Amino acid sequence: MKNTTKLKNILQLYTISLDMDEDNNFYLTTINKRTKAVETFIDKAYSVVIGKAFSHMKKELKKNLLMDR
User: Fold this and answer.
1) pTM of the entire structure?
2) Is the pLDDT of residue 61 over 80?
């Protein structure tokens, strides 16, 4: 799956902030639009932080589906 598709899916459920420090580390912070839970993902590569956030989103969705049963 392409990063733009992952980002579109993330943005449906989260507000994000993307930043970079002087050591070229990317910081992607997600804020859940419903619960306001905050998570930050850090890596040297943009694609990795997008992948981590997308993986986190899928885990949260799965956890919520199991809780709703």
Assistant:
1) 0.92
2) yes
